[in-house]
Design a protein that fits this description.
Length: 510
């Protein structure tokens, strides 16, 4: 047999991959902590810790199963810090005759590995990561020749393909989508789920990261690390979700609260994205829980959750592979402003932003509506450069890997793709933020005012956004109404709104 080197990337920790079904003494698995990965953006400390710890545990698991594994640590003397140099070093050291890797999820790494393989004198091969429900190209094939890429159409095709929540070729409950039932404001009378059982002591990996002088952002209590770092823990988080959060997931999925950072969200994105969990296994477990307990877990809760993974997650990946690398440079509104400094501290009087940013710094996590309708909404209204916005999201969130971060940030949230992912920009004044949560009740600003000293900045930025982007948006049939409302406003009032928003925007750079 030929001596083989197989690369495992940090987000390819899939124990169930067919690579591991046989033990072969000619195969060496290589898993590496790389400076190129810790420094392409300034990451949250919890994200670096979670990746390093999960990679270490995965390497140990493969070793204990009998595989030959090299786990290269960040400060090992023979670690050059880059993918290609380390691979060349180990290929030579082990006299490997073949090199193999699993398809990376990121365009950047895909290019790097393709280039590396072309330069090799030995044979190389790529394998599917055996994780996703759809292939890289499936979305492109579904929408071939179409101008619009509707998530809902893609999602229905996936429901039919997998048979999840289907009766024959009809959706269970005679509806594909129960979104209209999923818009409740969080009610303090609803009992919050118990704390998760996951509490890791990651002091060792924390010390290693400090010693290696890796730059990071955010906070951590290393002895009480809340994220799952191996498959066993990921399965615990999934079952905690099904038992305590799923019965309320759909109803409160768009809610926001001053008192709780996670509400009824599953917290499985990190485990999914590094492949500790398989998306289809998660969907089957949720579907099974619904069938076993339909009185406790309503169809709207199960469908609402399944849509996020079978619909949005697969859809975003399809868009990424269809549109990269151009996607990373799109800036439809030509926004140029820098992110205000308080995005790294949360020190602003705007309570919704302060709360969402501080929660992100504390947990390396914010739920979807905080990301979309608080920080994202603000960045879009304020005209922040999407490169700046992307870097912030890519660094701060534990689940941020480019394929799913950039499509959500540049696409869904910033509309910088001009409408590939969304049909209109997700923007709102204070009214929506107040409707979905209790931030406004604890804010220094007045949610109802536009022009008083303590008026909520969202209320003028909202109109400033529509006014300055009229040539780009007025023809969008989903937006026309906004311009009729604006046009009916008194000229003096319009001028005062624009002036107030301008003065707020100018204050952001100080
Ligand atoms: C601006 C912005 C940036 C985002 N960046 C990321 C990111 O870097 N990584 C990431 O995994 N998700 C990202 N999302 C999507 C979503 O916010 C997170 O997946 C979710 O908050 C993770 O928490 P959870 O596991 O508790 O999710 P839940 O609310 O419990 O949802 C369950 C699962 O559905 C999937 N999901 C839900 N919404 C989306 C979506 N829009 N796109 C793809 N998958 C989705 C995730 O895998 C998630 O774990 C982003 C959303 C926005 C608006
Ligand atoms: S009043 Fe405005 S700034 Fe304050 S929490 Fe509400 S929306 Fe946010």
């Amino acid at each position: 047999m030929m001596k083989k080197l197989r690369l495992i990337l940090g987000d390819q920790l899939n124990e169930q991959h067919s690579w591991y079904s046989t033990i072969d003494s000619d195969v060496t698995y290589l898993i590496m902590e790389l400076r190129q990965e810790t420094s392409y953006v300034n990451h949250h400390i919890q994200k670096i810790m979670a990746f390093f710890e999960a990679m270490g545990r995965f390497a140990e698991k493969l070793k204990s199963d009998g595989h030959h594994v090299i786990h290269l640590k960040i400060d090992d003397a023979n670690n050059s810090g880059t993918l290609e140099d380390n691979l060349s070093y180990f290929i030579e050291l082990l006299a490997s005759e073949q090199f193999e890797y699993q398809l990376p999820d990121e365009y950047r790494l895909d290019q790097q590995l393709k280039g590396f393989c072309q330069s090799l004198q030995i044979q190389s091969g790529e394998f599917d990561s055996e994780h996703f429900i759809t292939s890289r190209t499936e979305l492109g094939e579904i929408f071939k020749g179409k101008k619009q890429f509707l998530m809902e159409s893609f999602y229905r095709i996936q429901r039919k393909k997998t048979g999840i929540l289907m009766v024959g070729d009809k959706p269970l409950g005679k509806q594909w989508n129960f979104d209209h039932e999923n818009r409740a404001k969080f009610d303090k009378k609803i009992k919050l789920p118990p704390e998760s059982a996951i509490k890791n002591d990651l002091s060792d990996v924390f010390k290693r990261i400090q010693k290696a002088n890796i730059e990071s952002i955010g906070h951590v209590i290393p002895e009480k690390f809340i994220w799952p770092v191996d498959r066993k823990q990921a399965l615990i988080v999934l079952s905690e979700f099904i038992d305590f959060r799923l019965p309320f997931f759909g109803t409160y999925q768009d809610s926001m609260s001053n008192t709780d950072d996670f509400l009824f969200h599953s917290k499985i994105s990190f485990a999914l994205n590094i492949k500790l969990l398989n998306p289809l296994e998660v969907l089957r477990e949720v579907e099974k829980a619904y069938f076993e307990n339909p009185e406790i877990i309503g169809l709207n809760q199960a469908e609402g959750f399944i849509r996020q993974i079978l619909g949005w997650r697969e859809y975003m990946r399809g868009i990424y592979w269809l549109k990269m690398p151009e996607y990373a440079g799109l800036n439809f509104f030509e926004h140029q402003r820098k992110l205000p400094k308080w995005f790294w501290t949360g020190e602003t009087k705007m309570n919704c932003l302060s709360h969402s940013i501080k929660a992100s710094l504390n947990n390396s996590y914010a739920h979807h509506i905080q990301r979309l309708m608080v920080t994202g909404n603000f960045a879009l209204l304020a005209g922040i450069d999407p490169d700046e916005v992307d870097k912030w999201y890519l660094g701060i969130y534990i689940d941020a890997i480019e394929w799913v971060e950039i499509t959500n940030t540049r696409g869904m949230s910033q509309f910088a793709d001009g409408g590939i992912v969304g049909t209109k920009p997700y923007v709102s004044s204070a009214a929506y933020i107040d409707k979905m949560g209790d931030y406004c009740s604890k804010c220094s600003y007045d949610k109802k005012e536009k022009l008083t000293d303590n008026a909520c900045p969202f209320n003028t930025l909202y109109w400033h956004f529509y006014n300055r982007n009229r040539s780009k948006l007025a023809r969008n049939p989903r937006i026309g109404m906004m311009y009729s409302t604006w046009d009916r406003m008194d000229e003096d009032k319009k001028a005062a709104i624009i002036e107030k928003a301008d003065s707020f925007l100018n204050s952001l750079s100080h």
